[in-house]
DNA sequence: GTCTATATCTTGATAGAC
DNA sequence: GTCTATCAAGATATAGAC
């Protein structure tokens, strides 16, 4: 196995290059030529590793879906509401902060959305996470708070205004803020 | 002026068709052929009304930017903090609810983002809105709450889970929830 | 595993008839 | 103001040499 490349095998470098370009230009705005150029190979080399562009999309998205699924399952495994929330928020925020500007782009990209919707194993992940956040409440108000926190965390974590915060600080700020916002609907459980 | 079309002149129908398709497939995922087909004309007819695809993007985006600018300016014209917040939130939520599923897609689309960033008159709209939300606070915590509310409102207003709420109800729910979340940082002003 | 070369299709855009 | 016909460029994808 030829390992004369700067960092790791070509397949993984292709996935990383694609990830960055997808986030910046969208999937439709990123040609295989751009991806190949990014790591210094030709289009044909890309096609050796991935039979089609869709396969590349799948390779880019899958690790994130797996990580998210693991977080949701871990949270569902907890029993007390506070623990479920902490596990879910902590896990999601870790994912967001570790990737920063990528999540919004990936989540909003029409091609990726369609790809994810086409995978039955992953389709209800968003709803399961939402149910965990809502807890026992099922009214409209709780739903709206849940939606605002979900979308708001993803949006905030990608903001250029927070770019100079280090990961640890950003994680802590997002977690406490999300906790406090979600606490609005259940003020009694807060100390 | 030939007015033998189902609804209004062709130019406006093209803009509306483009808006819907952009939101669904993204700008790069929407060909001029698709837009032409949508209203039953040919590509060449599109090019009569818009010299280039970018001009169509501009025609789609401009009304929203103008509306947003009007809201921000109206809010900046108020003097008391509570009035500024109410004007801003009310205006933005009206825009979101009136268009629902469009805003997230438009805001996240790389082509549209680039187009907006290239218009100096509109570039600082987001920051001005953010400053209005933050009020006198300038710390990280206030910034994060502002970001979460901004992104969260846009995200929530597009959620399928809220699709069956009528506009009036959705508006009211979003407004009171946003108000309460922003109230976290200034609990003294809330009775 | 990576290359050159090419096939095929779709795109944004133009020319000119009506 | 809309059409048919066409162009040049760029896209995904394939074939076959090394």
Automatic annotation (TrEMBL), chains A, B:
Residues 8-68 form the HTH tetR-type domain. It comes from the Bacteria. Residues 31-50 bind DNA. The lineage of its organism: Bacteria, Bacillati, Actinomycetota, Actinomycetes, Streptosporangiales. InterPro entries: DNA-bd_HTH_TetR-type_CS, Homeodomain-like_sf, HTH-type_TetR-like_transc_reg, HTH_TetR. It holds the Pfam family TetR_N. The keyword Transcription applies. The keyword DNA-binding applies. Keywords: DNA-binding, Transcription, Transcription regulation. This is TetR/AcrR family transcriptional regulator. Coiled coil: none annotated.
């Amino acid at each position: 196995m030829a390992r004369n490349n700067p960092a790791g095998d070509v397949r993984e470098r292709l996935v990383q290059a694609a990830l960055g370009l997808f986030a910046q230009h969208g999937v439709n705005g990123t040609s295989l030529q751009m991806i190949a150029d990014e790591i210094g190979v030709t289009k044909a080399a890309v096609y050796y590793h991935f039979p089609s562009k869709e396969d590349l999309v799948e390779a880019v998205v899958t690790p994130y879906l797996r990580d998210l699924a693991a977080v949701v399952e871990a949270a569902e495994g907890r029993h007390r509401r506070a623990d479920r929330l902490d596990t879910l928020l902590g896990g999601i925020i870790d994912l967001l902060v570790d990737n920063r500007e990528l999540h919004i782009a990936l989540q909003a990209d029409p091609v990726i959305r369609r790809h994810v919707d086409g995978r039955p194993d992953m389709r209800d992940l968003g709803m399961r996470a939402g149910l965990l956040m809502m807890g026992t409440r099922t009214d409209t108000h709780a739903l709206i708070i849940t939606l605002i926190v979900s979308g708001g965390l993803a949006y905030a974590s990608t903001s250029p205004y927070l770019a100079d915060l280090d990961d640890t600080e950003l994680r802590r700020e997002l977690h406490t803020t999300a906790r406090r916002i979600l606490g609005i609907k259940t003020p009694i459980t807060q100390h």
